[in-house]
Amino acid sequence: MTATPTLRASSRLLALALVVTGMAGCSGFSGGINRDAFRPYVAEVVQGNFISKEQRLVLSPGLSRVQVREILGTPLVASLFHADRWDYAFSIQRQGVAPQNFRLAVHFKGDVLERIEGDELPSESEFALRLIKPRAVGKLPPLQASDEDLRKFKSTPEPAPSMPTAVALPRTYPPLEPASP
Questions:
Q1: What is the tens place of the pLDDT at every residue in 20-59?
Q2: What is the spatial distance between Cα 101 and Cα 71, in angstroms, rounded to a whole number?
Q3: Is 112:62 a contact under the CB 8 Å cutoff?
């Protein structure tokens, strides 16, 4: 059997309407919707131990391995081939913020800290500020009012509301319990 001409025409019209609607819907994204709304979520990746400038300043030659471990935590790399060297590395990747990478190596002579080498480390507050995504600030309105603006809002003092007349209260009240005979 063949389809009737009206069924073919209505199916073609329906297909054309779907195509036009789809194209019109896609063209509207550029104007009113933020493009960041359709970005996939990127998980925050943190690796290693964050060592702050304050922790680095506490270190000094002559500290024992135990003291260094208490201050900095467990090293990321403690190799058997380099038993007198501990490496601390830290990296963080957060969406919308530049990646942060820091490295610190401590060298021992026997069981005593000999020297420290590595990157310039940020303080804890500086590091926290680096992790915040900068926001675009639009033009701020002027925050000063002219004399003309202030005159618009001057109001006349409202008359005090009249107090209702006081109701005379009884001087004595009836007993709460009936009097006993």
A1: 777 766 655 555 566 666 777 778 888 888 899 999 999 9
A2: 20
A3: yes
Cα-based distances in Å from 46 to 19, 73, 76, 99, 108: 45, 16, 13, 10, 27
Q: Are 95 and 110 in contact (CB under 8 A)?
A: no
- Calculate the dihedral angle through the C-alpha atoms of 68, 71, 75, 78, rounding to the nearest 10 degrees: 10
Other C-beta atoms closer than 10 Å to the C-beta of 137 total 6
pTM, two decimal places: 0.52
Domains along the sequence of the chain with CATH: 45-130 (3.30.1450)
Q: Quote the Cα angle for 58-120-50, to 5°.
A: 65
| Number of other residues whose CB lies within 10 A of the CB of residue 56 | 19
Alpha-carbon distance of 141 to 55, in angstroms, equals 44
